[in-house]
Design a protein that fits this description.
single chain, alpha+beta, 341 residues, rod-shaped, 10 helices
Length: 341
């Protein structure tokens, strides 16, 4: 609020209002000596301007002060406490300028200073109240905007997940594997059906959620990895080494599956070149990596899978999703989320 473009008009309006109010209530007897109207108006203008400008300066450095205090104190409280010091400084300097203007000797008069500080505190309280209203209105507007953006991203992510899993190719491949298993291994085919139903049930129940527990996601990904292992056999090698702190951490739903599917989609999976995929939990993050062995004929990509993962986590966490290629591997690092009680 203190940085508003037309602040000098507001300063002038507040000073004029204060002048008229004082003239109507106490006339020219603000102190125990007569203060001409022009000097009174200039005095009030100087106090309002000084308080406003020093608060504007404090507001411009508020983020740094907030960080120094490790974000333990609300920024509005910090600004208000600093503004009290600003009032004292401005009123002291203004009082020293008044004396020569009315032909009085320079002095430090407690009563005079108290009267001017009282006015300064009232102005400062009014300005901080307006600033708080503006602050929370902007926060509300930002929250609403982020909610709309997150809703849009979640819808896109749901579409991407559905496009990857609940599509004819996935179902066709699963049914092909199942038809072959039925005649060879009844026990394995029964387990395959059970795992396939678990995958679809998870996607159906959780596709609209913003987060799920790590335990739920791991139960889902184990079912999904089982289907892949049956389908690809020795052509794929998946190591799942994620620690099961299931009730403590949260993740975005189906995010691990999307990364595994992405690896299979863009890389060769064959007996000659088996695809290596690893899932690990390290220092509050999940790391999913795969060997880089790109297909000669690349499949059509919507290019929104990894982008959506990054965008979703941008709203869910201050920690960023990291994507990089190194030592012949493609790696994605996703922060684990902890919810406050």
């Amino acid at each position: 609020m203190f940085k508003v473009r037309y602040r000098y008009l507001f300063i002038l309006a507040l000073a004029l209002y204060s002048y008229l109010n004082i003239r109507y209530t106490v006339g020219d007897k603000l102190f125990d000596f007569t203060l001409p109207g022009t000097i009174l108006f200039l005095t009030l203008t100087a106090v309002v301007t000084g308080v406003w400008e020093l608060n504007r300066l404090a507001e411009s450095r508020l983020d740094k002060i907030h960080q120094l205090l490790k974000r333990r104190v609300h920024p509005l409280l910090i600004l208000f406490l600093v503004s009290l010091v600003n009032v004292l400084v401005v009123c002291f300097i203004t009082m020293q300028l008044i004396y020569p203007a009315v032909d009085l000797p320079a002095q430090i008069n407690k009563e005079h200073l108290t009267l001017l500080v009282a006015f300064g505190f009232r102005v400062n309280l009014f300005l901080n109240c307006i600033n708080a209203i503006v602050f929370f209105m902007e926060k509300l507007k930002q929250t609403q905007l982020e909610a709309e953006q997150l809703k849009k991203i979640s819808i896109e992510a749901q579409f991407e997940a559905l496009r990857n899993q609940i599509n004819p190719h996935f179902l066709f491949n699963s049914l092909n594997v199942l038809s072959a298993l039925v005649y060879k291994d009844a026990e394995t085919s029964a387990k395959f059906i059970d795992q396939l139903s678990s995958v679809y049930r998870y996607l159906l129940y959780n596709q609209e959620k913003k987060i799920v527990t790590l335990k739920e996601e791991l139960d889902f990904i184990e079912s999904y990895l089982y289907l892949l292992k049956i389908r690809f056999g020795e052509n794929i090698n998946i190591k799942n080494e994620i620690a099961r702190d299931g009730e403590k951490f949260y993740v975005a739903p189906a995010v691990l599956q999307m990364l595994v599917e992405n690896a299979i989609k863009h890389n060769v999976v064959s007996r000659k070149n088996p695809l290596e995929i690893s899932l690990q939990s390290v220092n509050g993050s999940i790391i999913v990596s795969n060997t880089l062995q790109p297909k000669e004929t690349k499949e059509e990509s919507t290019q929104i899978g990894l982008k959506n993962i990054r965008s979703r986590y941008g709203f869910l966490s201050d920690s960023k999703v990291e994507i990089f290629q190194q030592d012949g591997k493609f790696t994605v690092k996703i922060p684990l989320l902890e919810m406050n009680e």
